[in-house]
Amino acid sequence: MANQSDDGRKGSGLVTWIIAVAVMFTAMFVANGYLIWYSSNGRHDLVRSDYYDAGLDEDHVMARNALARKPGVAAELQTTDSGWRVTAGKVAEPAEICRAHFYRPDDERLDRNLDLKASGLTPQGMQSWSGAPLALRPGNWIVHLSWEKDGKPVMETSLNYRSPG
Predict the structure, then answer these.
(1) Which DSSP symbol is given to 147?
(2) Which of 64, 78, 110, 160 would you call most buried, defined as having the most Cβ atoms within 10 angstroms of its Cβ?
(3) 91: closest CA among 147, 27, 23, 49?
(4) What is the value of pTM for the model shown?
(5) How do beta strands 76-80 and 83-88 pair?
(6) Quick check: 67 and 154 in contact, CB under 8 A?
(7) pLDDT category of residue 1 using cuts at 50, 70 and 90
(8) What is the pLDDT of residue 91?
(9) Which residues have CB under 8 Å from 140's CB, separation 6+?
(10) Residue 108 DSSP class
(11) Which ranges in the chain belong to alpha helices (H)?
């Protein structure tokens, strides 16, 4: 009577186990199928469209970032009455333009770009680039600055900026 259940049927415990295992395998296959579908149709944040080309340029990016960290260069981003201003010490090659890419890591729809044109020297002897006003949502922003001469980047850096609320 070892295989007999409480209601007197033989092997019903085995049938219950087979059904339970079948339900578990079905649930596993459905969950795996959903994850495969979701991963192939979802948004891929970590991969960029020019991933390979960007990787080839990585040595140049590191060199341009090193220029921005040299003593005496120290880039600063400021708001003025007429718009935005970036100041920096002696840039190796005087740049005609400074491109500012403002982005929020939490919402890419808020990203903004601003071109700042060379505007001479400040009274402290710093090089200066000025641009139009640009309204930003209050909060923390990351600003990627890239200085260009003849359409080619010569120096770049990223700064944190807190927009007042």
Answers:
(1) E
(2) 64
(3) 147
(4) 0.65
(5) antiparallel
(6) yes
(7) very low
(8) 66
(9) 104, 160, 161, 162, 163
(10) G
(11) 12-41, 51-56, 58-68
